[in-house]
What we know:
Elements: E1 6-11, E2 14-19, E3 24-27, E4 32-36, H1 39-48, H2 57-64
Antiparallel strand pairs: 1-2, 2-3, 3-4
Amino acid sequence: MSIAMLNKMHMNGYDVLSVNNGPWRVCTEGDRLASFASREEALAYAAALPGYKKRSPRAQSHTAS
Protein backbone atom coordinates (compact mmCIF):
# COMPACT_ATOMS: atom_id res chain seq x y z
CA MET A 1 0.00 0.00 0.00
CA SER A 2 1.38 3.42 -0.92
CA ILE A 3 0.85 6.66 0.92
CA ALA A 4 -0.25 9.77 -0.97
CA MET A 5 2.25 12.64 -0.78
CA LEU A 6 0.81 16.15 -0.60
CA ASN A 7 2.87 19.33 -1.02
CA LYS A 8 0.80 22.41 -0.23
CA MET A 9 1.60 26.13 0.05
CA HIS A 10 -0.36 29.35 0.17
CA MET A 11 0.32 32.39 -1.99
CA ASN A 12 -1.81 35.52 -2.16
CA GLY A 13 -4.76 33.64 -0.62
CA TYR A 14 -4.60 30.74 -3.10
CA ASP A 15 -3.62 27.13 -2.47
CA VAL A 16 -0.65 25.92 -4.51
CA LEU A 17 -0.43 22.14 -4.28
CA SER A 18 0.92 18.97 -5.82
CA VAL A 19 -0.14 15.38 -5.09
CA ASN A 20 2.28 12.48 -5.61
CA ASN A 21 4.76 14.64 -7.55
CA GLY A 22 2.08 15.40 -10.15
CA PRO A 23 1.40 18.78 -11.71
CA TRP A 24 1.28 21.84 -9.47
CA ARG A 25 -2.21 23.30 -9.18
CA VAL A 26 -3.39 26.75 -8.17
CA CYS A 27 -6.80 26.53 -6.46
CA THR A 28 -9.36 28.28 -4.32
CA GLU A 29 -11.57 26.27 -2.00
CA GLY A 30 -14.03 25.49 -4.79
CA ASP A 31 -12.13 25.99 -8.07
CA ARG A 32 -8.96 24.76 -9.71
CA LEU A 33 -7.64 27.74 -11.64
CA ALA A 34 -4.59 26.33 -13.44
CA SER A 35 -2.02 23.50 -13.54
CA PHE A 36 1.73 23.81 -14.09
CA ALA A 37 4.71 21.51 -14.54
CA SER A 38 6.83 23.29 -11.91
CA ARG A 39 6.29 24.78 -8.48
CA GLU A 40 7.95 28.05 -9.57
CA GLU A 41 5.48 28.52 -12.44
CA ALA A 42 2.52 27.87 -10.14
CA LEU A 43 3.80 30.30 -7.50
CA ALA A 44 4.46 32.98 -10.14
CA TYR A 45 0.90 32.56 -11.45
CA ALA A 46 -0.59 32.78 -7.94
CA ALA A 47 1.52 35.88 -7.21
CA ALA A 48 0.24 37.56 -10.39
CA LEU A 49 -3.43 37.03 -9.43
CA PRO A 50 -5.31 39.60 -7.34
CA GLY A 51 -5.43 38.71 -3.64
CA TYR A 52 -8.13 36.15 -2.82
CA LYS A 53 -10.18 36.24 0.33
CA LYS A 54 -13.05 33.84 0.93
CA ARG A 55 -16.32 35.72 1.19
CA SER A 56 -18.69 35.06 4.05
CA PRO A 57 -22.14 33.61 3.24
CA ARG A 58 -23.72 36.85 4.47
CA ALA A 59 -21.67 38.95 2.04
CA GLN A 60 -22.52 36.63 -0.87
CA SER A 61 -26.26 36.80 -0.21
CA HIS A 62 -26.10 40.59 0.19
CA THR A 63 -24.44 41.09 -3.22
CA ALA A 64 -26.89 38.74 -4.95
CA SER A 65 -29.93 40.95 -4.26
